Amino acid sequence: MKILVTGAGGFVGRNLVENLKNLRDGKDRTRPGLTVSEIMTYDLENTAEELEAFCARADFVFNLAGVNRPKDPGEFREGNCGFASLLLETLRRSGNRCPVMLSSSVQASLAGRFGTSEYGLSKREGEELFFRYGAETGARVLVYRFPNLAGKWVRPNYNSAVGTFCHNIARDLPITVNDPSVELELLFIDDLVAEMLDALEGREHRCDYPPAGEAGYDGLTPRWDPAGRYCGVPVTHKVTLGRIVECLRIFHDQPRTLMMPSLKPGSFEKKLYAMYLSYLPPEKAAFDLTTRSDERGSFTELLKTFDHGQFSVNISRPGAVKGQHWHNSKWEFFIVVSGRGLIRERKLGTEEVVEFPVSGDRIQAVHMLPGYTHSLINLSETENLVTLMWASEVFDPNHPDTFFEPV
């Protein structure tokens, strides 16, 4: 399949093109039925002759070109309708009736606060151009109305508050939030790209936009219908500005607190964290950890979570014995990754000791059982014993649940 992407240098275009390259080059094997043979990219630096050539041989067109921050409002119509008209006319002249997608905006609904939006009016006019083109030529037309877009490579201090927040907070710069209760509907770029690849496979999600007041609709919310006039991305997240900033502050402080928030699959928090990290300046990509050392070796906390305990790394010097304590309800995994050692456990009130030889040559996880006192011994006379440790809860010095008892 030969694919033309207009506006290829923009936020959506860049993300789409890079993912199309993965398919073309065989790096992404998640869509075995989709073959990308050529990616044609068109942007401001390309010529009309190149557009003619691209349109003549394209099997699918993603029209992502548009204007959203012009110096003169009149440029909205030129950027969002003028090029759309040129593109469709070029396809028409070439006799190419391949599917064509339009990147529009919820502002084209002209509902609510968007009722007088110059940008929305220009987008609505572009939509109608596409619908007429589809009716006249029989080409498959896919018109998407996007809400606020988010994800890696969003340009900060431009038209994305979330991008600006990520950029500034990552650099310890101030941000301004006038009303934390304002709610945004966010569409993350990976969900958008997944939908566009679905569209390439003929599996786009169709919908309509009932007018405000009809059956409780507000003019902005899609009603999903396989026969719908419009297309949409079914996964978006509605969240307040206050919650966005709260999350970004937690992400910012993680190198200091080591606390990792709950990151459920597909959650807003997981997607926002990935976006935040994409704005992190290189000098902040690495950060020091606090190591506690004594004659036996060292102990370093690596990561803490709100609901899944914490991770640490323990280094035992040759011959050192560590542990010699027990827990009531806390439990741990010890995973030796380098060296040779012995884990010993004894149930309180008994004399029987269970021993587990451990080695970096055979990676195993050994439970430290509640109610069992346990120890870790480095059996080597020359090499350190390196152990990755997981505990079921974050260590609380006020309630340590850790009691000395020799094995």
Structure write-up:
It contains 8 helices and 23 strands. It is of the alpha/beta class. It starts with a strand and ends with a strand. The mean pLDDT is 94. α1 crosses α6, α3 runs parallel beside α4 and α7 packs across α8. The chain is 28% helix and 28% strand. Strands 12, 13, 14, 15, 17, 20 and 22 form a 7-stranded mixed beta sheet that branches. The protein has a 5-stranded parallel beta sheet with strand order 2-1-3-4-5, with helices on both faces.
Features:
single chain, alpha/beta, seven-stranded mixed β-sheet, 8 helices, 28% helix
Structure, briefly:
The chain is 28% helix and 28% strand. The protein has eight helices and 23 strands.
Write down the overall geometry: elongated
Q: Describe the largest sheet.
A: 7 strands, mixed
Secondary-structure class: alpha/beta
**Any idea what the radius of gyration is?**
29 Å
Beta-strand residue fraction: 25-35%
Unreliable segments of 5+ consecutive residues: none
User: How confident is the prediction overall: mean pLDDT?
Assistant: 94
Question: How far apart are the first and last residues' alpha carbons, in Å?
Answer: 67 Å
Total count of helical runs of at least 4 residues: 8
State the helical fraction: 25-40%
Number of β-strand runs? 23
